[in-house]
Task: structure prediction
Amino acid sequence: MPTAQETAYPLLKKRSSRQELSTLFSPSSEETILAQRQTRQKETQLAFLIQLKTFQRLGYAAKINDVPEQIKEHIADVSELSTQLPKLGDYDQSKTQQRHLSVIRNYLQIQPLDETAIQMMQQTLMEVAQAQHDLVDLINVAVEFLAQKRYELPAFSRLLKIARQVRRVTTEQLYQGVMAQIDTSLRIQLDQLFLLEGKRQTSRWNDLKQDPGKPVFSRFKLWLERLAWLQSLQVKSEILNLIPLAKMKQFAAEAMTLDGARMREMQPQKRYTLAVSLLSLQYAHTLDDIAEFLIKRIRKLHHQGKNALEEYRKQTQQKTDVLIQTLHDLMLAFQLPQEASVRLKEMEQVVGDNSQQIIDDCHAHLAYSGNNYFPFLLKFYRSHRPVLFKMLEVLPLSSSTQDENLERAMKFIQDHRWKRKQWISLPEAAQSEMMLILTSVGFPSSGGN
Result:
């Protein structure tokens, strides 16, 4: 259970800075006059001022005996009533204290907590508890509500009791709502998770709770099998939409602590709510882990492709230098101040019998121009091909924008997965569309079919 220190419930600090004492606990002249009007006795005036300043700070009446000495001494010093500190005695149990509280509430325009205020607060908490599950959050809402409505705060224990009651009621309503949406076939499917089947030592529920670790390429097939299994157990969105994310996380956390036997013993409405919550979050976590693995793996492939391009350029630098030298010599021959036939003859001498080789070298160089490392990806991609296609089958991928070209590109490669031809013939009407898709997803134009 949460403590007051974990919430927004106001408390007095054991030690305050000088600035805090001066700002928060220094009685004004108006407040001093108000205290003097209540009584002529100095010790009672001091008690009134301590009660007033702490009430002002907290929003509720603190017992003077519980107020830190530092605060009491500061108020006494500012009010020139230090000699009265030892005389406060049994003020907390006196009728005078109750009379003073009435004056203080009226002065601060704070209403005592009544049944109407409690009902309004409970209604507010019921609305908040539809989405929030943490008692700390509910208590904080209650404190803020009462402060805004200018009601005196009750004891923390009472707020905690109200928050727990509200959470219990709203949670039970949620259980009932989920139960109403679960048909017989789904109940049977969920209940089978908690049973020991065949020679298994543990239930499938235990498999669901197991942490499979981070995906690695050597075990990635098992990850995809886990994803497919979790996918088969997902319930319709109408059920999941009944459970706010904060509550779903709380239900899933509770479910993680329970084995199959304890789940079977649980009331059905709670059992099924906890089960679908854990199934949904485990499926989401598995999707996230696989997506992260995919991103890292594809990023690594592209990194390898870029490195391969750089290595290729180093290895072919001499050929590139020869091509540049040939172009240089051709331009010099072309610019000779002589007739065209003479210049052509000089250019033929530059090329010699190497015209086809020069053309081939130019084609090879142009294939990788503009940092085009895509041709190098193939050799790194081959070992990943089966897994990547399997991922396309099981991952529910969709565009986050209205641009669906990437989705269409993925469908295209899936449709042609088993073709071994170097080129794929397309109907003329589809060629321009495919070029648009390839361009939009980052592939360079190759001019092919």
About this structure: The mean pLDDT is 88. Residues 115-181 form one domain.
